[in-house]
Structures are given as structure tokens and as C-alpha cells.
Amino acid sequence: EVDSKLRELVGWAPESVALNLRIEGDEQRDGYRETRFLFAAEENADVPCHLLVPDTGDGPFPVVICLQGHSTGMHISLGVPKFDGDQDAIDGDRDFGVQAVREGYAALVIEQRCFGERIPQRADGAEHFGNRCQHAAMVSLLLGRTMIGERCYDLSRAIDVLEGFDAVDTSRIGCMGNSGGGTITWFASCLEPRISVAMPSCYVCTFRDSIGMIDHCPDNYIPGIMRWFEMGDMAALIAPRPLVVVAGREDGIFPISGVEETFARIQEIYNAAGAPDNC
Predict the structure, then answer these.
(1) How far apart are CA 23 and CA 20, in angstroms?
(2) For residue 190, what are the contacts with CB-CB under 8 A and spacing of at least 6?
(3) 102-104-110 Cα angle (round to 5)
(4) How far are the Cα atoms of 60, 68, 162, 176, 261 from residue 167, in angstroms, in the given order?
(5) Nearest C-alpha neighbor of 100 from the set 132, 164, 53
(6) Which strand (E) or helix (H) includes residue 237?
(7) What is the rounded average pLDDT for all residues in the chain?
(8) Helix, strand, coil content of the chain in percent (nearest 5)
(9) What's the start-to-end Cα distance of the chain, in Å?
């Protein structure tokens, strides 16, 4: 079965722990309420999040899970610059959470492993040298896991947390992200059936033309996956749920020819599923 094989490949096997939800702040913003909280995805893996709920409209609200990629962190989704270059990213439409609220959705902003507040620290307290994802991604492989699987598991546990918030409708969950956020949007939508609609940006391509041909961060790699699937084949785990694939014609690491080939495969799968207009 495709689902069980993908779970095996990504190493979907963390030990379940209590969510240990901790509300750290609750503030009124311009047009929405923002709640900051932490929860435990697994032992020694706390996940910082912000939940944004619109002031107007009838709840419970559909919720969009917003995922930044290799940026300085989830604060970009909140439209809050913290570091040099952040404002350029925000001005470049990366403030996903704020945009979602303006469209009448609730938004869940998640800090992914190795990004922002979750950049790994060495035993001496310093940041790891070089690529911030590299050491953690390699340790994941030592454990028979992958960084993709771990990030997807964090997202799945975040949905568990959302089920305790009356303001959101967990029967209507969207997921979106760019680049590394697009990666997890794609895989999480394959692995987590509670995601109702997916919009991965700047990731969906053939493995052959993207991470197989061009040097990428180690967090992209899943041992053995090409023995079983090309990326488009995995749409069998998403169809017939709505899927929007966003790509850049001049993206240097996810070539548009590979995107078009993959989307043609996705269309074949959606046609077979009787939902040709859902992708």
C-alpha cells in the first residue's frame, strides 16, 4: 500500500507523548486575535505556534496551516521582521498567516524543526556550523527517520492541538508553504488525511530534475524513495482533495519542465479519481 510504504520510508515512528499545551500569550491585533502557544510533539521536541483568529465573521473558522521554508523563521508568516532581510520577504508576499486572516480564515503559524526558534544548538550552546539543518537531518537518518517525517509529525500533532480550540473548524484545514514549507505541505498532505486542501509552492517537481540533479539541503532526502515513487505518483495519497501547485518559471532549483511533467502525472491521478477539476 502506498500510504504504509511512504510512512516506512520517512520513518514515521516517534513515541507518543502528552501534548502538554502551554499558552504563552494572547493579544489583540489589527483585525484578529493572536494566541502564542507551545506543545510537545515528542520527547524533547516542543513546537512553538501562533494561532490567528479573525475578529469578524462567523466561527468556527476554517484554518490554514502556514509553513515558512529556509527563512529566518515563522515570524515572517506573522508579518513581523526580526532580522536583516525579513522585510523584503514580508513585502514579497511571505506573510502567509496575516494574508489568510485577511481572507477570513484562521491561521496556524508553526515553527518547523531547524528554523527560527528551533535552530539546533551544539552541546556547548553555540549554533551548529554550516547548514543549520544538516546535523539534525543526519541524526534523523541514524535513528531510521527523516527530517521530512519529523516535520510532518509535528504538523500532525499540531492538528491534534487545534481540535481543542473552539474558534477553529478542524473539518476544514488548509495547508500552504513555500520552498521548504512547500515540501512539508506536500508530504503532510500525503500523510495526514485531516488536511482538506493543499497549496505547496516552489517544491513540486520530479525528484529526478530537482533534488536528484541539483544540490539541496540535506533535509530534502528520503533514502530509497525513488525505488518506489516519483513525486507525482504520491498524488494518489492526496486525490481527490483540492490541490493547488504553485511554481516559479525561473526557479533555479525546481526546474519548470520537471514541474510540468509532475503536474501532468498529478492530473492523470485526479482524472482516475473522478476529480479532474480538483487540481
Answers:
(1) 10
(2) 3, 6, 234, 237, 238
(3) 75
(4) 5, 23, 9, 20, 40
(5) 53
(6) none
(7) 95
(8) 35, 20, 40
(9) 23
Q: For residue range 113-149, what is the model confidence (pLDDT) as tens digits? A: 999 999 987 666 655 445 789 999 999 999 999 999 9
DSSP per residue over 127-178, as a string? BPSS-TTHHHHHHHHHTT--HHHHHHHHHHHHHHHHTT-TTEEEEEEEEEEE
64-68, 129-133, 137-141, 239-243: the lowest-pLDDT one: 129-133
Amino acid at 14: P
Tens digits of per-residue pLDDT, 190-202?
Answer: 999 999 999 999 9
Amino acid at 135: H
C-alpha to C-alpha distance for 176 and 198, rounded to whole angstroms? 6
**Exposure b/e, 203-233, CB count within 10 A at least 16 = b:** bbbbbebbbbeeeebbbbbbeebeeebbbbe
State whether residue 233 is helix, strand or coil.
helix
pLDDT at 213: 97
Model confidence, pTM: 0.96
The 3-state secondary structure of 244-275 reads: CCECCCCCCCCCHHHHHHHHHHHHHHHHHCCC
Residue type, position 178, single letter = N
- Following DSSP, what letter does each residue of 30-79 receive, concatenated? SSEEEEEEEEEEETTEEEEEEEEEESSS-SSEEEEEEE--SSS-GGGTTT
